[in-house]
Each structure stands twice: as structure tokens, then as C-alpha cells.
Amino acid sequence: MKLFLTECRRLLHSAVYWLTLLCLVFFLASQGVLPDDKTIEEPQPGAEQSVLVPSNDPALIMPEAVSALYEGFVSNNFSTYPHGLIKHVKLTAAKQGQLAQLLAQLTGLSAEELLAAANAEGGQSGAFAVGGDDLQLNPDGSVTITGGAASAAAPDGPGSAGVPLRAGLAWEEFTGLMEQADRLLGGGSDWAVDGLSGYGRVPATYDALLEEYQASLAHDRYTGAHARLFCDYAVCMLSLLPAFTAAAFFWQDRRRIAPVLYTRRVSGAALICARFLALVALQFLPVLLLGGWLTVHYAAVYGAAAISWTAFFTTSVFWLLPTLLLVTALSLLVTVATGTPAAVALQALWWFSELMGGTGGLSDGSTYGSLLAPRHNSLGQYLVFQQQLPRLAGGRLLAAVLAVLLTAAAVAVFERKRKGGFSWHGRFASAARS
């Protein structure tokens, strides 16, 4: 306990610790969750028209997705999110030709006709003969096909007026062609299979909204929903910032007290575990304090008897603590092994690839099982959350187990260095001998 308190005092004197804490608070405040700027209210009849939900109906999804792809093809301008960040894509002539071939299979038009329409884009307005029908290029770059045959081929679904859909196009063939289009655009587009649910959205029914509200009220008691959204944003920072704190902590040792650390007056297990627990405790304490403040805030909003007073604490322990344990343990191991801030670069790469590279979410649950940063970016969607809870729990348990294993590995590496048997470019052998 004495060693743990000593490490805590040292950490409290670290400027990096306070800087990362400020970054966490600033990020949460900037995202509108300190406190949340939205409240949970009972749905009213008529309001459901403003809430759109995935229809999962191929008859609605296919024409709207094809129409959107065709508009991008005509203007040769696509917005994709290959790593969670927007990227504007402009295809080369060769790739434009490949996309025309895919659109030909989707629409039943020829690739030559589609390319002619794309080449005519540029502020011109006029009619083009397309299979006996009129293809009208609008001033905004969109295209409308008129005529009896085209009108008959185009479904009456949302967004279907812009381009026809090939008669008899099966869902399996459609998704395969869309997957090819997504790869042609570099990935991360709305035409990837897991992004197609964004098309063909329909207004939610009042009964569905009421069922969602009643389930959330019975189990969440308001603060449960707010706690999930709080953790959704907090995990974005807790999956990265602890690497800076841990690396800076050990970097101080290398510059100031490395010879003392590598003596045998304190066991390696005691020192590494004390430091690990100090890093975790002092970085998790602010999260609990913020949770307590938000609990009091929502008690004033909804009423003290209506809320769950433990939701922020239990959700934070379940959701955020495993991530903090894992990031701290990994950073501790890499820093002990290398004696450099390499842990920061390694963690930044993992953070970017897993957090920013994820394209799933509420529709398919692909981020709930994440080891690093499970997401549920919604104040509602309680029923979806319940369905994905096993995946979330499995990922959280695995993260905690890995954290224990990584900490044990850090102890082993530290002890090996004390004996002078582990050297990273000869750096630690001299420390052990001193």
C-alpha cells in the first residue's frame, strides 16, 4: 500500500497526467455529454415521421442506392469514409469505365450510354437518347430518365426516379455489385454491404417508438441511457490517452531514477503492480467523479426517484475500465521493454485502425465486441443494445484478461532487466549493472 501511494503521489506531480485529464474533459464537453444536451421524452403521436429507421427492404434499398451511385458517377465525385474520416474520391478514366460496367449491370443500360451521360455533365442541360427514352441532365448534375419503358422499369420507391433498376435484379447479385463498387472507390463508402441500410429508410411507427421508450424507462431509468452515451464518447479518449501517461511516467524513471529502479530492494512484481494500479486508479477516478456529477444533474432533470443512482458507476466499470486496463498494461509492457515512448505510437496506430476504421454500429453491431473501443452512439436504441450485450460482455472480459497477461509479461521483462539478461540495443544492461 505504501508503494502504491508513493506511485500515486508521483503521478499527481506529472504534467502529462493533468494534460490528458484536461483533454478528456474538453473532448466530452465538446461532444455535448457534460451534460448531454438531449433528454429522453415519451414519443407523441405524429412525431414518428421525424425519426427514420432502416427498412431492411430490398425493394426500397436497391433503387435508392443505385440512384445515389449513379449521381456520383455522373459528377465523378464521391464521399467515402475509409478510416472514419471523410475522403473525396474522383475516379480515373479507367476506373470510371469499370464503374460504368457495374452500373450497366445494375440498370440495364449500356456502359456507353452511361459514359455519354457522365461526359455530358458540366453545366449543360439537355436530353439524350437512351434506349428510346429521354435522359434529362439536370442543372445540379443529377439525371432523370423519362419515357414509358424507363418509367415502367423504375420502381416507385424513394429515390427511384433518377435512374432505372434492371428488371429481375436479385438481392444477392445487387450486394455483390455494390461490394465491387465499394472496392473500386477505395472502401468505406455507403455502398459497402454494411452501409446499405442507410438507404431505403422509413419513418418509425409510433408503436415501435413507444415500445423502445417503455423498455428503456423500465430498465434504464433514464440515467442508464445517458451513461451508455457517456461511455461511448469517453472510450474514444480512454483508448488512447493512458498510453501518454504511462509512457511519460516510465520516461521520467529513465531520465532520473533508472539505477534505483533496477536494484533489488523492491520486488519487480510489487513495483510494476503498484505502478499499474496507480495509473489505472488515478485515471479512472475522474471518470467516476464525472459520473457522480452527471447523476446529480439528471436527478434534477428527471427527479431523484425516477433515475438509477448507480447507472453511471456500473456502466463505467463494465464499459470503460477494461479498456483502461488494457491500454495501460500494453503501454507499460512496451515502455519497460524498449525504454522509449514507442507505446504512444503503437497505441495511436491501434486506436486509429480500430476506432476510426470501424464502419459498423447500431445496424449490425460490429463494434460492440471491440477489445479497444466498443461503441453505441445513441441515446436510445435500448433493444438493440440488449441484443448486442453478449458481444459487448465478451469483448470486455477478454480485454481484462489480456490486461492481466500483459502486466505479468511486464513484470517478467522488468525482472530480466534487473539481472542484466534483457537488453534493447544494450540500453538496459548498463542500468542493471549500475
TrEMBL record:
It comes from the Bacteria. Keywords: Membrane, Transmembrane, Transmembrane helix. The chain crosses the membrane at residues 232-251, 272-294, 300-321, 328-352, 393-414. The keyword Transmembrane helix applies. This is Uncharacterized protein.
